Every structure is written in structure tokens, then in C-alpha cells.
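EI: anyone free to look at a 430-residue chain?
SC: sure, send it
EI:
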Amino acid sequence: MKKITTTVALLLILCFAVVSLIAFFNAEHSEPSWVMWSHTYGGAENDYANSVVQTSDGGYAIAGSTQSFGAGNTDFWLVKTDGAGNMKWSRTYGGEVNDIAYSLVQTSDGGFALAGEANSFIGESADFWLVKTDGAGNMKWNQTYGGIGNDRAKSLIQTSDGGYALAGSTEAFGAGEWDSWLVKTDEYGDMEWNKTYGGTRSEGASSLIVTSDGGFALAGSTSSFGVGLINFWLVKTDGAGNMEWNQTYGSSIRNFFSSLIEVSDGGFAMAGDIHSGDAGGENFWLVKTDSLGNMEWNQTYIEADMDRPHSLVQTSDGGFALAGETKSFGAGNFDFWLVKTDGLGNKEWTRTYGGADIDSANSVVQTSDGGYAVAGNTLSFGAGSYDFWLVKTNEQGIPEFPSWTPLMIMLVAVMFVAVIYKRRLRPQTN
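SC: here you go
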């Protein structure tokens, strides 16, 4: 009886420990998903992910380019997953030459729109290319925009009238070598108007948003204006694309822009990399402005080597999250780097994800559970050369225990008690 009582006591202690552990995780995560995962998508050749969105069904859609599949050297590639990152389907779009998707939106009808550059259709130079699909990725229509020279669309939005706006760079139009180019279309992709912005040298827009007043803001880099060789350039327009104001930001060397958002106070936040020369490399740079583009504050995240941000979001707590690549930390040559800040840009935490080779994050979204989905390219994992890589984290950017962990702990506890119980019942030998 004493042996049985001792065994029962041990069982109760272990069960209490397991229940306490589960309660701890539930307390830490008021809506625990117990989810952290990463998935690669690709074939034997190079596949580059440039944009990710969380879809209305809780899954994800990723757009970029593929050399592994499709009709040409490089094609648009759209990958749709479920909420756990398992691929549901993928589609390629393109011709026999190079076609690269840089930006993706889920449209109001549940389909998708992708924008980038097409080299396969008109002449030998690149044109803006807009592809519209249904919810299963089947192409409904496509449109090209451009002239004699290269035109590359880097950012796409759907407008409130059901149409689209695309921003990028043009060599075919404008005042200088390259100019920023904004194209507005109707719901079928037919051009309604277009505007160029630039000086005598080179400009290019990398990010476009619709502003709260119904206008547009596009940001990129300029070598025609500003104090340095290359500076951030923010252009604000009205709803017809007419420039209202513009501002430059940067040091006296080179500053490459990557991402723009309008923040909750009506101002703007921009991310890019700054070359100050002080740290001997490139550093994440976050700039916050008021509604007229006047700088309110800026923060650099200076480390020892090359660190480049490619995507920026404002988080649900009023702070910011920047994703890109770092050579200063991590396991490999370059790794995904996710930086979380407060509302004034003060660093709260950073996380790296990667393997022994090159891994670069190009797009981040805050997910409906408060965590983050980060998409980019990996040479460390996957099936081929570079592959799409999608990483899902919790709200602290930390890999959480998977869903089977509490059950595994319980199973180990039961097995442990069973072994003790068996030993206690074994006859003793003198």
C-alpha cells in the first residue's frame, strides 16, 4: 500500500507540473496559437520572394520570381498557402524572357493583383506589368505600361474606386536619366493617367501608399536632390497625381530607401539603409515625419557590418517592425533580421532567422494573432539554389512550442511514472 501511495503522489506531482506549465504558456499568450513554423517553396533553380500578404482565409500569399517553373527564363510566381504555411497552389505568369513580380495585393473580390516588370512582351526593354487573377490564381487579365527604355513597377495598391495605382521607375519618360513614375488605372487595368517626378539625374520610387486625404505618397531614392550622392525622397500628391510637396532625407554619402507607411497620427514613416561611414557598413534607418514630411525623429540601428531593411509595418501597439538582412548577427553569411521598436523608434528587441548561407527578408506583415510573417529568399534551406522562405513568429518574434508540445510533456510524464511504478512492484531480491 505504501508503494502505491508513493506512486500516486508522484503521479499527482507530475500532473500538477504539466498543468502548471500549460497554464504558464496560456497566461503568457492570452490567445495561444502554439504555432511557429517556416516553409520553403521552390525548385532546382533560383526563386525569389518579394512580397507577402495574409489572406482573408487566414493563409498567406507570396509573390516573386521563379527560374524553376514557368515559360521563360524568369516568370512571376504566386504561391498560396494555408494558415500553417502548407502550399495550396502556385501559379506562374510570363513569357520567354525575364518577368519579375515585386508587389502583391489581395483584391476586394478575393483575387490577387501582382505588379512588376515584364521583358517578354514589348520590345527588348522592361515595362510595368500588372496581372489580375481570381481567388485560385487563374489570370483574368494583364496590362503593360511603358515606352522606349526600361520601366520597372516596384509597388502596387488597389484604390477605393476598384482600380489600381503602380509606382516605380521609368527610363522612357520624365526629365532625367530615370524618374519616379506613378500610373493610375481603372478596375480592368486600363490607364487613366500617369505622372513622372524627378530631376536631371536618377530617381526611382520603391513604395506607394494611398494617404488618408485621398492622395498618394510615393517614396524612393534621388540623386538629383538632397545633400548626398543618393537620398531618400518622399513625394506627396493629390488624388490626380499632382505633386503637393516633396522632401529629401539623408547623409552626405548614400542612403537607399525601401519602405513607406502612413502612421496613425497622419505622418509618415520610412525605412532604408544609411551609409554614414562611421560604422564601416550599412545600417537600418527609420525616419518619422509629420503630415507635411518634416522630420520629427530618426533612429539608426548601427552594428558592425552590412544590415539592410527591406520592409516596414506599424504594429498594433503603435511601434514599428522592420525586416531585412543582417551580416552582423545570426548563423550565416546573411540572415533574416526582424527589429521591433516602440513608437519613437527605440529598439525593443531583435531576432535573426537563418542558416549557414545567405538568407534575406524582403517583406513583413503583422498577422491577425499579433505575430509576424516574414518572407524572403534562402540559400540555406530548400530544394534548389535560392528558394522562397516564409517564417511565422509569435508577437515577440520568438519561435513558440508547436501544438504537440504539451501532449509530449504529458506522455513523457506518464511513461516516467509507469517506470517508477513498475520498479516499485518488482520483487526485491536479497
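EI: Residues 1-34+414-430 form one domain.
SC: 👍
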